[in-house]
Amino acid sequence: MVSDSTNGAGDHYDRMADLKAFDETKEGVKGLVDAGITKVPRIFIHSLDPLDQKAAQQIKEPHQLHDDELKAKLEVPIIDLKGMEEEDEEWRREIVKAIGEASESWGFFQLVNHGVPESVLEELSQELRKFNEEPKEVKMKHYTRDPMAKVRYTSNFDLFQSPAANWRDTLYCNMGPHPPKDEEIPEACRESVLKYSDEVKRLGSVLFELISESLGLNKNYLQETDCAKSHVFLGHYYPACPEPELTMGTTKHSDADFLTILLQDQIGGLQVIYNDQWVDVPPIPNALVVNVGDLLQLMSNDRFKSVEHRVLANRRGPRISLACFFTAFPLTKPFGPIKEILSEENPAIYREVTVKEIISYYASKGLDGNSPLSRFLL
Questions:
Q1: How confident is the model at residue 53 (pLDDT cuts 50, 70, 90)?
Q2: CATH number at residue 85
Q3: Fewest CB atoms within 10 A around its CB: which of 188, 211, 241, 319?
Q4: 4 found inside a domain
């Protein structure tokens, strides 16, 4: 039985025993909620983030804007791809410029009129929720920590490495370049996952062209280096939390990929760091959130930013999201700063690294709030 302590009282707390007990249920956080838990178990309790501590300690002078007023003036860029198929050169230059500026300053942007049908997005969200709310006997068949499994359901991939567990369960699907057999994907969401996989792969190709051009490269540059050859889905289910102030939906982290496309529902909770403060990424109907990954920051030699982000726990729920991570194949292929953008004034600051190396480092440390890129500096 997982401990229900929130205050850490007692001299003989065995964290590993609690972690193992939670994992062995194979029911995830949803199982805790279904059991009627009213307090957050100790394994989920997080320390206060330094930026939250800083905000809490700031003394507001009468002439200063309040934090919430300041945040209202900050908005993650919104990029409209309407007209994408008309091949208008002026339109393309404007979009390339907007994506470049957003990738340099925020590392995040929201994409509207992206071409993925609304029906596909709605169906995917509904079916991911349906899978997570199936009887435990159905979900447990997919529950595994086997890193070689192309489809796996689990709670906290870094459960035994991270300082504290996150209040979420996840369905992992490795969709390319060699997708799983259809029957390996849970029946409840199989059709929508396959449809969305085709759509997001198409959209990813468009984005990699636009990003290549924003770096001053041939539009096919990034795709020809196999940056988008593989894509992986993580469908997250964040149940309503009885004490959201004590835990996190997802800890502060950056993404160990080239590019991420995220579908989030309307509950909200996603935040990014901008100007040394947390800024909300409010849900926009039918929009997709796009962010730069660590490998793209490395390849751009720090021109583009892989920004740390997080998801807050919430009394409302469940929150549904699906992140698509674009990465390379094979995992042993090395990537370094793009030679075409280097110069005497802009020398390489990173060494070459393989996808396998950066993912292995992530797996060893878990989501501990620290970017892995400093490990690969020259």
A1: confident
A2: 2.60.120.330
A3: 188
A4: no
Joined together, the tokens standing for residue 264 give 């989030």
197-210 b/e with 16+ CB inside 10 Å = b? Answer: bebbbebbebbbbb
Q: Domain for residue 8, yes or no?
A: no
Which amino acid would we find at residue 52?
Answer: D
Calculate mean pLDDT across residues 331-348: 93
**Maximum C-alpha span of the chain:** 68
Contact 249, 167 (CB under 8 A): yes
**159 with 367: CB under 8 angstroms?**
no
DSSP H/E element including 211: helix 190-214
The strand pair at 151-154 and 259-264 is best described as unpaired
Q: Specify the residue for token string 């929720």.
A: 129
Sequence letter at residue 97: K
The rounded distance, in Å, linking the Cα atoms of 225 and 152 is 28
Condensed to tens digits (0 to 9), the pLDDT of residues 224-233 reads 999 889 999 9
Q: Residue length, the chain?
A: 378
**Is 371 part of a structural domain of the chain?**
yes
Q: How far is CA 225 from CA 255, 284, 285, 357, in A?
A: 19, 33, 33, 18
Q: Which domain holds residue 175?
A: 15-376
Answer yes or no: are the C-beta atoms of 317 and 264 closer than 8 Å: no
Looking at every residue in the chain, the average pLDDT score rounds to 90
In whole angstroms, give the CA distance from residue 77 to residue 99: 9
Q: Is the peptide bond before 242 cis (omega within 30 degrees of 0)?
A: no
Q: CA-CA distance, 352 to 42, in Å (whole number)?
A: 40
